[in-house]
Structures are given as C-alpha cells and as structure tokens.
Design a protein that fits this description.
Largest sheet: 7 strands, parallel
Radius of gyration: 20 Å
Shape: globular
Number of helices: 14
Distance between the termini: 28 Å
Order of helices and strands: EEEHHHHEEHEHEHEHEHEHEHHEEEHEH
Strand content: 15-25%
Bound molecules: 2-succinylbenzoate, magnesium ion
Structural class: alpha/beta
C-alpha cells in the first residue's frame, strides 16, 4: 500500500492548564502547540501533536522552530514522493539534523493515517500487545510540603500506580522524606530535570534512604559521562530523559552504565519508529522503559497510550487522565484513568475522535500546505 500525502494542515492551538506546572527549569501555565493533520490521496486523514514548548527550556526546540522546520523542510520532504510504510518517514527526514519534535509530529500523523487505512488500532500497527496500561502521575514543584502531601494524597486515592515528584536544589531530600514518611508503601520517584551536578553527590546519595524507584535526569541535559559516575555510586536506579534523543544515545548510555531505566518520549526521540527501536534495544538489554509526557492534549496522549502497549514498557508512565490537565480536552471521549489503569481503545488509528468544536475553540490559526504549494 502506498501512502501519498497530498495535504498537511497545521492547527495552532493554545490551551490553559488547570494548574501551573512547575519544574526545575520553569513554570508552564498554558500549552501552545500544533495539531498536525495529514491527508492522503484517498482522503484518509491522520493526526498527531507537536510537543515543543514556547521556551527552549526543556530542549532547544520551540513552537516557532517546530513550525519553521516543518513548513520549510519536512513537509516538502514528506510530500515529495509516496511512502510504502510510516517507518520510512524518519529515514526521509534524516538529511535534516535534530529537530526531533518537529519530525515526530509529522511522522505520528502518518502513523495514525496508516493505521486507519489498515483498519487497525495504532497500538496493533506498532506491534503492541497490552489491552490496558498502568499509569502514574507527575507532580510539579509545590509551594509548600503541606501542599505537596495534599496533592500526593489525592492522586494516591485516585489510584495512580506511581507518584513522580519534581525536585530542585533546596526542594529535594527533606521534602521527599516527608512524603515517604506519610506514604510508606507507594511507588515513588523524583525528576530533577537536570538541576544537579556531581558536586551534589552527597545529597544525591542521601536519596538512597528513601526507596525511590528511580531518579530521573539528575545531571546535565546533554550528559551521559557524569551520569555513569553517579550511577556507580548510587543504589537508586538513574532514569534518563533529556539525555536520550535516539537509539544510538540509548546504546551509549546503557553501555556506559549511565542509567538503568529509560524514559521514552516520542517527540524527544523523533517519532514512533525511533521509539520502537529504543524499546526493542532496551528489551534485548534487560533495561525497562516507560513513556514520559509533555503535558500533551488528548491527541499526544493517545499516541503515548498506543506506544505504551509494547511489552518492555514495564513501568507506569506519565500519561495521566485528560482531566488532570484540561477543563476540556480536544478528543472524544477524553482519556480516563480508573484504578491507575487506562483501557486501550480498539478503534482504528489513535482510537479517539477529534472534538472539532473543542479544538476550534482553542485554535489560533490554521495553515494548509498542499503539493501545489510545495511545487512553488
Ligand atoms: O521531565 O518529564 C518531564 C512536563 C514537561 C516537561 C518535562 C517533563 C514533564 C513532566 C510531566 O514530568 C509529564 C506529563 O504529565 O505529561
Ligand atoms: Mg523528565
């Protein structure tokens, strides 16, 4: 089956988060992003979401660079000639360096289209097996320990399988100790978003007392050397997020002993095809993975759910319910979590419909690119 992309539509949206989300790199109050819609010559469509932020705080991409790279470089490559499978998209994009979030947004839409044309749920098109997935929740830095304890209590009662707490220097050991004291039995982890260096080794070693499942990205976003030194001195497993952009990065980090767990984000690694490759490599190495989040709307969330059905996603991910982020999500039905579990939809493609009324109410602009534009 050949896929001829004849039109790409970029819907630029802005959505307010229910609550500001604070990390060691900054506070996010609203999400601005693209819903990418691709259409082929049979009139079939596919959808995905771009995950870059307005500010290059998490990685170097922004909403503006994502648009520039898609429009100027990637959309022309995508429409240049037919594809026989979505796995070919990442190879097609290879001449363009990095810009993984821009690439992943377009590739993901092609995956959805491909799955829909084959009448397959995206999870099955990817080779996933699970019918339901376990999920945890990521809690931003709270103003006080009391507020954090209150948050944790709420999410534990809702049934989330694992609680992740953002940390930064000055808001780490003492605060986590309080949470551990109040909730002795929960699966708990911390995410530093690169806020520490090897100079903080004494503090980081103290975290070993707290029985954390893992510590996510304690050191620099572009490091795998110091993480290896740190891991050799920590009992707590290190999980890498920001440092892993590709299968090659995963291989090097694992060979160096820089981490024992990998967080896979589809946008950060350039798409679902690369995510599958990292998954397969980690499976062969006995390294468990889980699916991270980027405060996505339902469209991105649906892609995360499909990916998480692959067998080596052994640990609960960050794909929480739509209602944790949004007053009204842009998909129908919304993503719901019951007892810490999401039932994987069995409809073709991403398995959720676009709620066009909701989408249009958040839309800032809509730009259509056709083959005729590209020929110009
Ligand atoms: O480091 O995993 C992260 C949110 C924004 C940027 C980076 C991260 C996060 C989260 C939240 O932890 C994940 C989510 O709930 O979508
Ligand atoms: Mg992280």
């Amino acid at each position: 089956m050949t896929i001829k992309i004849r039109q790409v539509t970029l819907h630029r949206l802005v959505m307010q988060l229910n609550d500001p989300f604070q990390t060691s790199f900054g506070t996010i109050r609203e999400r601005e992003f693209f819903i990418v819609e691709v259409e082929d010559d049979t009139g079939c469509t596919g959808f995905a979401e771009s995950v870059s932020f307005m500010y290059p705080w998490y990685n170097e991409e922004t909403v503006e660079t994502t648009e520039h790279v898609m429009v100027r470089f990637l959309i022309p490559l995508l429409m240049q000639s037919p594809l026989s499978h979505p796995d070919e998209v990442s190879a097609r994009f290879e001449p363009i360096k990095r810009n993984h979030m821009a690439k992943a947004a377009l590739e993901g839409a092609v995956w959805d289209l491909h799955a829909k044309r084959n009448r397959l749920p995206l999870c099955l098109a990817l080779g996933g097996e699970k019918r339901q997935i376990d999920v945890g929740i990521s809690i931003g830095i709270q103003p006080t320990v009391e507020q954090l304890l209150h948050c944790v209590d709420g999410y534990v009662n809702e049934g989330y399988k694992r609680i992740k707490i953002k940390i930064k220097p000055g808001f780490d050991y003492e605060m986590l100790k309080e949470v551990r004291k109040r909730f002795p039995g929960i699966l708990m982890m911390a995410d530093a978003n690169s806020a520490y260096t090897l100079k903080d080794i004494d503090l980081l070693r103290k975290l070993d007392e707290l029985d954390l499942m893992m510590i996510e990205q304690p050191l620099a976003h572009d490091d795998i050397i110091d993480h290896s030194r740190l891991q050799s001195q920590l009992a707590t497993p290190i999980c890498l997020d920001e440092s892993i952009h590709s299968l090659e990065d995963a291989r090097k980090a694992i060979e160096l002993g820089s981490c024992k767990i990998i967080n896979i984000k589809i946008g950060r690694v350039g798409g679902l095809t690369e995510s599958k490759k990292i998954h397969d490599y980690c499976l062969a190495q006995g390294v468990p993975v889980w699916c991270g989040g980027m405060l996505e709307s339902g469209v991105g969330r649906a892609h995360n759910i499909a990916l998480t059905t692959l067998p080596n996603f052994l640990l609960p991910g960050d794909t929480a319910a739509s209602s944790r982020y949004w007053a009204k999500d842009i998909i129908e039905p919304e993503v719901t979590v019951s007892g810490g579990v999401i039932q994987v939809p069995d409809k073709p493609g991403i398995g959720y419909d676009i709620d066009w009324k909701a989408l249009e109410s958040c839309r800032l602009s809509k730009e259509i690119y056709t083959q005729a534009d590209i020929a110009k």
